[in-house]
Design a protein that fits this description.
The protein has 256 residues and is an alpha+beta fold. The chain has five helices and eight strands, in the order H-H-E-E-E-E-H-E-E-H-H-E-E.
Length: 256
């Protein structure tokens, strides 16, 4: 009797191990396939860009969409732009769904369910070609995909080798110098004294104050100063430093 019970428990344990292992490997496979899809999108963008004379299309009266994004936008009108950092694994479309900001938290570019999701921008009245403060969100995946490389900015040497964020709208190419790298607690977003509580600076004075607070919270100095009424971009991902913590890489628009 006891032998049958032990045998039964062993078989249950064995099936549980097999089930968990199967789920684990399926997750790895799914993440691999998701990343391959993004690599194909990035290659499509690069191919069109290389074949087209690069021009700046904004501010010519009626805007013309950059050719490298037109095809993707026709496939999915939620496309707002593209974010990339040379020398890193960050090279992704940026989505925007104002009525449901986190729609792409667990959806791929094809709007299918996806564990890794797609980087997205949040905020009403958002425009990657505008003059405000842009927040982009992406997962920190353990396989190194999505915004995982942002955590490497914890080391100053990594910032020195990857100082520029390229953030395109559908109409123009834009570059941002990384000026601060920091951890943010949940309270920084929810409490009135938190650095991100008032995260919609509009006037030059408000932007300058926000810039100052971000620099003061940074791990190291970058020597970059607020010189004009510039657009800022903040790339946000999970830090796992503590519950609901965030890791933030902040950049300010630059002509360099």
């Amino acid at each position: 009797m006891f032998e049958k019970l032990e045998r039964g428990l062993f078989m249950c344990f064995l099936f549980a191990i097999v089930g968990v292992t199967g789920i684990f490997w399926k997750r790895i496979w799914d993440l691999r396939e998701e990343q391959i899809q993004f690599l194909r999108l990035a290659e499509e963008v690069k191919t069109v860009r290389d074949e087209t004379e690069v021009m700046e299309y904004a501010f010519r009266g009626e805007k013309d969409m950059l050719p490298e994004y037109k095809g993707l936008w026709e496939k999915n009108g939620d496309l707002a732009g593209w974010v990339s950092i040379d020398g890193t694994g960050i090279d992704y479309p940026v989505m925007w769904t104002p009525d449901d900001p986190e729609y792409y938290l667990h959806r791929n570019f094809e709007r299918e369910k996806s564990y890794g999701g797609t980087p997205f921008a949040a905020g009403s009245g958002f425009d990657l070609g505008g003059e405000g403060c842009v927040f982009l969100y992406g997962h920190n995946m353990r396989n190194g995909s999505m915004f995982a490389d942002l955590l490497k900015y914890r080391e100053k040497s990594y910032w020195e080798n990857h100082p520029v964020i390229c953030l395109d709208s559908l109409w123009e190419h834009r570059r941002f110098q990384v000026f601060s790298v920091l951890y943010a607690k949940e309270e920084d977003w929810t409490e009135p004294e938190g650095v991100f509580y008032q995260r919609k600076p509009e006037t030059k004075a408000e932007k300058a104050d926000f810039f100052k607070r971000l620099k003061e919270a940074g791990f190291y100095g970058t020597g970059i100063e607020f010189e004009k009424d510039s657009v800022m971009v903040l790339l946000v991902t999970c830090s796992y430093q503590e519950r609901d913590g965030r890791f933030v890489v902040a950049g300010i628009e630059s002509d360099k």
